[in-house]
Design brief:
The complex is a heterodimer. Chain A contains 13 helices and four strands. Chain A is mainly α. Chain A has a domain of about 200 residues. In chain A, α2 crosses α10 and α2 packs across α11. The two termini of chain A are about 15 Å apart. Chain B is an alpha/beta fold. Chain B folds into two domains: about 140 residues, Rossmann fold (3-Layer(aba) Sandwich); about 80 residues, Rossmann fold (3-Layer(aba) Sandwich), CATH 3.40.50. Helix content of chain B is about 35%, strand content about 25%. Classes of the chains: A mainly alpha, B alpha/beta. Chains A and B meet through α7 and α8 of A and α2, α3 and α4 of B. The complex binds adenosine-5'-triphosphate and magnesium ion. The site of magnesium ion has 4 residues of chain B, from α1.
């Protein structure tokens, strides 16, 4: 039998909806094809708590918080061009406000969290506004410094419990509320952000990232739009912080810890920049890993940086983009 | 009969670390006029545009638009007043369909105010503007990704971005450069039409022959200074202009 050479050939599945432009879906199989990965993701996430014990449910909650931060980071970096390394500031601002409202005014967490989300976002945005005119690396550096400032101020003034923090804050009603509140927050944020980036506002933000001169010449104030974008990311992050305070019933300077700034970035790069969902998935993988290595303390930051490096060098597109590409292609062997 | 002055530049100057990019330039622009600005490379034409439109702050001098002082105003506010410009180096949003590029100016306060209520479907408005400027709707050109369009269309897109603001003055920075004769021939009637509609045009050009078909008046720049100002025929006879502009041209 003569041997024939064969090679692998990749073809794109021809579902029109993936192309830019306006097409209608023509069959149920196409609808399923498009919805299936999304449904698997959502249903998987929502049913996950049933398979986890108390401890791992907590880890899932933490992963959700990191997922929120990753969403905010990806949104600002990929769609607005602001590389924000200050995720910890959002957590700290949201966490302290919510915890203090609970400790001093005795408000219920379910009241504290929404107030802290909005108030924290306002404060974070105000703090970042002066830095908005900075470009690229300068914004990144300034945003990275704010959580550190906050820690020094709190320690120096012994304010808000100083280095000890404040403990015995109220928790959320029960563990199911805890876990589903954060899962809902992640899914809703993901859904709304994905909508937003395709709306006019998202288009303008992306245009600012691409070419801010042409946006200015089009009569649009880029500062106003950047402020709105930062506020949105801050809302998401501050919710995470407020929630975290009541998850652990405690507030302290480690809310401004570097983990909250670095892990979400590693998660986003792992999952794929610009995919939004990628960062959430990255956080779901990285957080348990980080939890399992709790014994190593601050050394874990080295681990995040190492994972970050590996992905940047070997898989810069991230795993979500990789799987997306594979899902949309099929392979066959052809004779040559 | 002299037309009403819409834009006035008063002895404006700008230096970049010792380079006198623009020094002491003054001129007035009548409503509905087509003004050409020419000059050798590096003579300060683009800088002059940047100074007028607020992209660069002047060291001294004033810019007056419709009788109000706009010196030092942020560029987006100037655009909202109806004074717009194209860029010599254009960068459209390549990945977006062409018409989506117009969503940005169509969201500006100026458009939202003037078109309020009537602005039903913003995409449809964008496509209408593109069709008017020569994007054939039947061939689905407005829907093509901007990155896939030839230069002639990109220049039109840049002009359309200005038109979306319903401006009173458009400053075109080298809109003909890089285009073929036939592409320019396609663009000229559009500019003439704008002129008929009463839009005031400032055209910065190296393509003199095409420019002189449109321009009522020409300003010549050299080393940041205005060295001549008048109707094209007179200006080209000026000895200093011949020396500065055409002399250098010949050397190349
Ligand atoms: N942002 C800047 N920083 C420093 N120097 C600048 C800047 N912008 C312009 N210049 C200098 O100012 C001078 C005038 O430049 P400009 O771009 O205005 O010339 P131009 O007449 O538009 O030239 P061209 O015909 O090549 O477009 C040049 O010497 C240029 O190097
Ligand atoms: Mg120029």
């Amino acid at each position: 039998m003569p041997k024939t050479a064969r090679r692998k050939k990749r073809l794109d599945r021809s579902v029109k909806v993936r192309t830019e432009g306006l097409y209608a879906l023509t069959s149920w199989s196409e609808i399923t094809y498009l919805l299936l990965p999304r449904l698997v993701l959502i249903m998987g996430l929502l049913s996950l708590p049933f398979f986890l014990d108390m401890y791992w449910q907590r880890v899932l909650c933490a992963a959700g918080i990191y997922g929120l931060l990753a969403l905010g980071f990806d949104f600002l970096a990929e769609f607005v061009g602001l590389v924000c390394l200050g995720g910890a500031f959002f957590i700290g601002a949201g966490g302290y406000i919510s915890g203090l409202l609970n400790a001093y005014l005795g408000l219920s967490p379910l009241v504290c969290i929404p107030i802290a989300t909005v108030a924290g976002a306002v404060i974070s945005t105000l703090v970042l506004v002066p830095a908005l005119r900075l470009r690229g690396i300068y914004f990144a550096i300034v945003s990275f410094m704010f959580p550190l400032f906050a820690v020094y101020i709190i320690v120096a003034l012994s304010a808000f419990g100083g280095t000890e923090g404040i403990s015995a804050l109220d928790n959320l009603p029960n563990q199911w509320v805890e876990v589903y509140l954060i899962l809902a927050a992640v899914l809703v944020s993901l859904f709304l952000l994905r909508r937003l980036v395709d709306e006019d506002m998202g288009l303008i933000l992306r245009a600012i990232k691409d070419n801010d001169q042409a946006v200015k010449a089009s009569g649009i104030s880029i500062t106003t739009y950047k402020i709105r974008a930062v506020f949105i990311a801050a809302l998401i992050g501050c919710f995470g912080g407020a929630y975290l305070t009541h998850l652990y019933g405690w507030l302290g300077i480690s809310l401004f810890g570097m983990d909250f700034s670095i892990l979400p970035i590693a998660a986003t790069v792992m999952g794929g920049m610009g995919t939004l969902a990628g960062g959430v998935l990255g956080a779901l993988l990285l957080t348990p890993l980080s939890e399992a290595l709790r014994g190593f303390g601050q050394l874990r930051v080295v681990l995040y940086c190492f994972i970050l490096l590996l992905f940047i060098v070997y898989k810069p597109e991230g795993f979500l983009s990789y799987f997306q590409r594979k899902y949309h292609q099929f392979e066959l062997w052809e004779e040559v | 009969m002299k037309a009403e002055v819409i834009l006035e530049v008063n002895s404006i100057s700008k230096t970049f670390g010792g380079v006198h990019a623009v020094s002491d330039v003054s001129f007035a622009l009548g409503k509905g006029e087509v003004l050409g600005i020419i000059g050798p490379n590096g003579s300060g034409k683009t800088t002059l545009v940047n100074l007028i439109t607020g992209f660069v702050q002047p060291d001294s001098g004033k810019v007056i638009f419709k009788a109000s002082d706009i010196t030092g105003m942020p560029s987006y506010k100037i655009a909202n007043l109806g004074l717009t410009r194209t860029f010599q180096v254009m960068r459209p949003y390549y990945s977006l369909p062409a018409f989506k590029n117009l969503i940005i100016p169509l969201n500006s306060p100026r458009v939202k105010k003037t078109r309020s209520g009537r602005l039903g479907d913003i995409d449809a408005v964008a496509i209408d503007i593109l069709e008017e400027i020569g994007f054939e709707r039947d061939a689905r050109v407005p829907y093509k990704p901007a990155g896939s369009l030839p230069l002639g269309y990109l220049k039109r897109l840049e002009l359309a971005r200005c038109l979306a603001l319903s401006p009173e003055v458009i400053i075109c920075d080298e809109i003909f450069s890089g285009l073929s004769m036939s592409e320019i021939a396609g663009l000229l009637p559009l500019l003439e039409k704008l002129q008929m509609q009463g839009v005031t045009l400032v055209m910065i050009e190296h393509r003199l022959r095409e420019l002189f078909r449109l321009a009522d008046r020409v300003i010549v720049m050299n080393f940041g200074q205005k060295i001549a100002d008048g109707i094209p025929e007179d200006v080209m006879e000026d000895e200093e202009v011949k020396k500065a502009y055409l002399g250098r041209e010949r050397k190349k």
